[in-house]
Structures are given as C-alpha cells and as structure tokens.
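Entry 0007
Protein: Histidine phosphatase family protein
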Amino acid sequence: MNRLLLHDLRNGGYIFYTRHGEATIGRDSNLDFRNCFTQRNLSEKGRWQAIYYGEILRYLGIPIKYPISASPFCRTIETAQLAVGTGNVQVDPFWIEVNRLSGNLSSEERQRILNRLQSVLELKPEAGKNNIVIAHSFPEGAGLGRIRNMETIIIKPRGVGNGYEVIDQLSLSDLSKLGESFNTLP
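Output (structure tokens):
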C-alpha cells in the first residue's frame, strides 16, 4: 500500500471488508449461532491476529464508524470484539447470506445475494469515517473472491446504483508495514 492510499484512508470514505482471524480446524456441525461449540472458533493465532489488526488501525489513525459489522458466527464476532472492543460491534445476519455463496444455491438465490452485496458495498460511509465488516471469504468468481485469514479488501463505494471499486487487498503484514512510513505522512 502506498502513502497516498494511507492518506486517503485516514480521510475516510472506504469499506474495509476483512475476513476473520485464523479458526480452528474442522467444520461447523449442527450449526447453532447461539452455541459456539457447534462452530469453528478462533485459534490462539486468530485471537492474536484480531488484537493486532485493531492495534494497527488505531496506530495508523484510521477513522472507524462504530459499531462495526460482523457476521453472526462466533469467530467473526470474536475477531471484531478483539479488534475494536465488545461494545463497538453489531451483528448483521446478512453476512450469513453471503457465507452461503460457498454452498449449493440456485442461480436465482446466488444472484439475489450478490445483488444485495452489491448494494451494501455501494453505500458510502459517514463523512470522515470508514466502515468495517468482519465476515468470511467468498468462493472463486463470487463476491470479492478468496480472502485469507485477517486479509482486508479496501473498497471505495461510489454511491447507491453507481457500483464500487476494489482499491487493494491487504494482508495483516501489509497493513503492519504501513506503520513504517506512518511518521513521514503529512
């Protein structure tokens, strides 16, 4: 990421779509969103990643609109809470729909979800702020594509009906490297 982008991010107007931290191995079984024992949860590394993500955003002076949005899965909620604090997270059931893109859906259902995702990503954040979403990766060719653990896609919304632009895809390491040039920014 270049210094100009960091300057722009510090002025707000972007969406940070971030995949949750590293989760335990396995599968969600008999999924119950009220019971974390039925889900894959954050590993110790995933917890560290989430805390570090929040520290980086604060250090870089990235203005955030609170509450941030998280998928109802325990691993996404915990990632969000560790990054920005428990009281700064709002669970949004829509991100379950987006997670369903990885499943076997009819073409109509897939298109309905993708259309709604498009409209969400077109919404401009509050002036001077950035929106943050903590959710999941996408299957190849759907949504924003494959995203690794704690990777962030920076999106510039163009407004309702005008689309959005993917500006960059940054790993946690990429974000941390911004700190190296932080003190030289205007």
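Curator remark: The helical segments are 3-11, 44-60, 74-84, 94-99, 107-122, 172-182. The chain is about 40% helix and 15% strand.
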